[in-house]
Task: structure prediction
Amino acid sequence: MKYLITGGSGLIGSEITKLILEKNEDVFWLTSSKKNKTGVKSFSWNINKNQLDENCFQDVDVIINLAGAGIADKKWTADRKKELIDSRIKSTQLLFETLKRRQNKPKSIICASAIGIYKNQNNHLLNEESEIGTDFLADLTNQWEIEVNKFETIGIRVVKIRTGIVLSKDGGYLKSVAAPVKYGLAAALGNGKMITSWIHITDMANLFLFASKNEKMRGVYNGVAPNPVTNYEITKQIAKALNRPFFLPNIPAFLLKIAFGEMAAVILMSQNISSKKIEKVDFKFEFEDIKDALENIYK
Ligand SMILES: NC(=O)c1ccc[n+]([C@@H]2O[C@H](COP(=O)([O-])OP(=O)(O)OC[C@H]3O[C@@H](n4cnc5c(N)ncnc54)[C@H](OP(=O)(O)O)[C@@H]3O)[C@@H](O)[C@H]2O)c1
Result:
């Protein structure tokens, strides 16, 4: 198998790359970065200039499409929102338009999506058929899925992984949440009852590779572990795994809204997401329980 990853230098892409190289398979990156010191063979693209080095497609079987500016990295100003959209939509369009006119195409594209696409329904368990939301994040994710669906029209199998909260000590949710916990400042957010549908980084990377090889998979799959937990529970378990106290009162939602503006929606999001569909196609999770996942991450 030969893989091409967009956004390969990010949290999920780096883990996928590591697993591919461990299996002695081939991987290229299509990157927006000028410098890449990892040794992974990289080709460049410039989404805003509609430029892409087509050599990146040489003998590639699968594209893993992860590129996108970090959702929770900066406040959502109008410019930032545009960047969040363009980095996902324009990049996917550029891939599509380039592949459409090429003779040799990869067989599959496995694209990141997000559980933020769903309309929150009072913590009811949501599956891949559940209603899509109308807020900024849901709309962005939905637009991204619509763009990637177009690859089916040119004979490329499409799988979209509606990714949950990825747990890794190298970045993402735990990097921001665990920082205060490390200093003994663990506190649940809002009312602490929001459901966090999480997934361990190893399972996340394995799921992208599983979908790459399983040609029967098509369409959307939730990328979450089987046992979501409340915000209170995950914060308590992070403190436990780090051997730190957990006694502070919750941080009220209104303070988070003042600090983060519209982006507080990501922090206060409550999504109870089902993993049944991915289990039905025989994907095996290494980490089903939050305690085991965090112990492994902080061992
Ligand atoms: N981590 C999570 O918990 C989570 C949850 C739900 C959905 N997702 C989605 O899954 C995808 C991968 O997640 P991740 O956590 O690995 O993200 P990440 O660590 O932020 O990495 C994303 C990568 O996208 C590329 N990128 C960044 N800004 C860009 C821009 N303006 N234009 C084009 N490319 C840009 C960069 O790669 P290059 O420098 O190589 O171009 C970057 O390393 C993202 O689209 C994210 O929204 C993640």
About this structure: The longest strand covers residues 108-114. The mean pLDDT is 94. The domain at 2-166+197-224 is CATH 3.40.50.720 (Rossmann fold). The radius of gyration is 19 Å.
